[in-house]
Structures are given as C-alpha cells and as structure tokens.
Specification:
The complex is a heterodimer of chains A (163) and B (111).
Chain A lengths: L1 H20 L4 H18 L3 H5 L4 H30 L8 E6 L5 H13 L3 E7 L2 E6 L7 H20 L1
Antiparallel strand pairs in A: 1-3, 2-3
Chain B lengths: L1 H24 L3 H8 L2 H16 L4 H28 L18 H6 L1
The chains are: A mainly alpha (163), B mainly alpha (111).
Amino acid sequence: MKIKAAVISVVLGLLFWLGLNTSLENEVLIIGAAVVVLTAVFAVSNPVLKDLKLGPKALAAMIAWLFVFLVELIKSNIDVMFRVISPRVRINPAIVEVKTALKSPAGRMALANSITLTPGTLTVDLVDDKLFIHWIDASSTDVEEATKAIAAKFEKYLEVFLG
Amino acid sequence: MEMAGAILALIGSVIFLLSALGLLRMPDLYNRIQTGTKATTLGTLVLLIGMSLYHPDWAPKLVILMLFILLTNPVSSHVVARAAHYIHQKMTDRTVADALENDEFIEEEIV
C-alpha cells in the first residue's frame, strides 16, 4: 500500500519538476530526483494516494471522468453566461441535499470538487454521505432527483477509480 | 498558430468580462460566487491554452498553472460559501429552498 503511494507521488512529482524546468540536464535531474524522493517520504500517508486504484479499468474511468468533466464545465459555463446577460437575471436558487454512494474520503472530496468546479452548482457543506449544494437553477428540491441531476454523472466514473 | 492563440485569449477575456458582469447583477453572495469565482475557471483555462499556442515553449509551465487553478479554485469557493452560511449570510428572496437551514451540522462541527 505504502509502496504504491510512494511510486505515484514520485512519478507525479518528477513530471511536475520536469514541467517547471523544461530541461533534461544532469544537474537538474539529480536535484529534482532528490527533492521528489524526499517529498514522497512525507506524502505516503496521504489518503488520496491510498484510495486511488490503479489498472486499465481505473485509468479508462479516469479519462472518461476528465472528459465528462470538461464537457460539463464548458456546457454549464455557457449556461451561466446566458443567465447573466438575460434582461432579468434568470435564477432559481436553492440549497439542495444530495446523497453520495462513494465511500472513501478521497472519492467524496473529488466529487465535491467536481460539483463546485462546474458553474451553477456549489458545494456548501459535506457531512458524511450528504452534500449540501447551492444550485443556481433548482429544478427539484427532492434528494433523489437532485442527486440524479447533479452528482450521478460524476459518481459513475469516480466510483471505479476512487471508490 | 499565433492567430489561434490570440483568438483563444480574446475568448477567455470575454468570459472574464461576463463573469465580472455577473458579479454586479447577481442578488446575493452565493449566486455571486457561482459567477464571479467559477465562471473564471473556464476563462483562465481558455486564456492559458491560447497563451501556450502563442508561446509554445511556455506550454509545460502553463499546464501546471491550469492544474493549480483546477485544484485550488473549488476549495476556496467552497470555504467562502460555507463560512457565509455559518454566519447566516442572507439569501435572496428568490431562493426556493434551503436544505441546510434546519440542520445544526455546521455549528456542531465547529463547536
């Protein structure tokens, strides 16, 4: 378990370091490797790395989630922009309750963050498996219907790689 | 290539302009967060993609900037909204429902 977390953080850290430096000189690589390994030692207890599942299925889900997320981001941004420029600001706000099926803290965190990043929905609080979400155009205040409209599309993929 | 970068940067700026307009037009804090902080995510992404087309050698650093914004932006807007709800910041009259209103969750957690 710890080895997996260490490997993930070393790979991510090295990619980050190379992106910042954009060079492959020996000095740069040696300093980078030393710092990255040191950071990984501190990062192995990170719960996000522990909950992350690896494998082809998880990777496919991760890519699908990124894709769904980007499409959602663009769609809802355009939607919110039209709300802003319409003559009488078109809003129907409410704080609704959503129940998530995800068990791991990292999965819930990722779900809350995906919901917050799409304009129109904003996670106000997260208590156990309940998310309280400020929704700019609440079509329903019912728990199940709100879950279907806001969380289901991200949950489907997050379930596979973060549980 | 430079032309495409310039056009993307322009689109990003327009998104920024509209979210600034939203900041003025929305009736309460929660709705302002919706437009003011989050509509800017797409604006920043488009602007940075445009910049990386304009200066291809900056691309790796710009990708890291995008990741940074995607990771930190939701956390800050969530914390602002949560704090506002905790101090009972008034919601607009057009609000339909508040599922958190009768829950003492936030108070319990802090005490």
